[in-house]
Amino acid sequence: MPAVPFRRVRRRADQPGALRQISTRAAECARRGARRAGARTAPADAVHPAAGELEGRPVSGKGRLRYENRHLADTDIDLNLAGNLAKLKGAYGRAGDRLGWDIDAPALARLNLGLAGRLTSRGSVSGDPAAPQIEATLAASGLRLPGDIAAES
C-alpha cells in the first residue's frame, strides 16, 4: 500500500470564548513537532486538562495521545465542547490495536463551524490500516453540514 501523506488541517472560526489552563508543555511539544521534518510524534502527555467557555457554555478537555511511526498509541481523550461530548480511547495502526470512540453531540451549531443538528456515534476501528475493521453505530437528527449536506437517521 502506498504511504498516505501526512496533512495538516487548519480551521479558523471566529467565535467568542476563552480557554484557561493552557499547558506550556503541550505548547512546547506542538512547536517542536512543527519544526521537525519527517518525525510525526506527540508525547503521551501532550494533551493536558483545559477549561473555558464557548458562546457562554463550558468547554473542557483532558487526555493523552502518542503518534509515532504511523501508530496512534496510548490514546485517552475526553472533550466537552459547549455540551458536545467526545471520547477517544485505545490505539490504532498495529495488529491487536482497537481505537474506540463515543460521541454525543446534541448541539453542533454551538461549535460555529457551519454545522447544525444532533449526532451520536459509538464504535471502534481495528485491524490493518490497509483494510480497517469498523464497528459503529451512528444516529443523526436535523444534521446539516457545510455545502448544503443534510442527513437524518
Walkthrough of the structure:
With 153 residues, the protein is mainly beta. It has one domain (17-151). Helices cover 8% and strands 50% of the residues. It has one helix and nine strands; from the N terminus they run βαββββββββ. Strands 1-2-3-4-5-6-7-8-9 form a nine-stranded antiparallel sheet, with no helix packed on it.
Main sheet properties: 9 strands, antiparallel
Structural class comes to mainly beta
Give the ordered list of helices and strands.
Answer: EHEEEEEEEE
Tell me the β content: over 45%
What count of domains describes the coordinates?
1
Strand order of the largest sheet: 1-2-3-4-5-6-7-8-9
N/C terminus separation: 34 Å
Radius of gyration: 17 Å
Defining traits:
153 residues; mainly beta; nine-stranded antiparallel beta sheet; 1 helix; disordered N terminus
Question: In a few lines, what is going on in this structure?
Answer:
The protein is mainly β. The chain has one domain (17-151). It has one helix at 24-35; strands spanning 17-20, 50-54, 57-68, 71-81, 84-92, 98-105, 116-126, 133-145, 149-151.
Task: Reconstruct the topology from this structure.
Layout: E1 17-20, H1 24-35, E2 50-54, E3 57-68, E4 71-81, E5 84-92, E6 98-105, E7 116-126, E8 133-145, E9 149-151
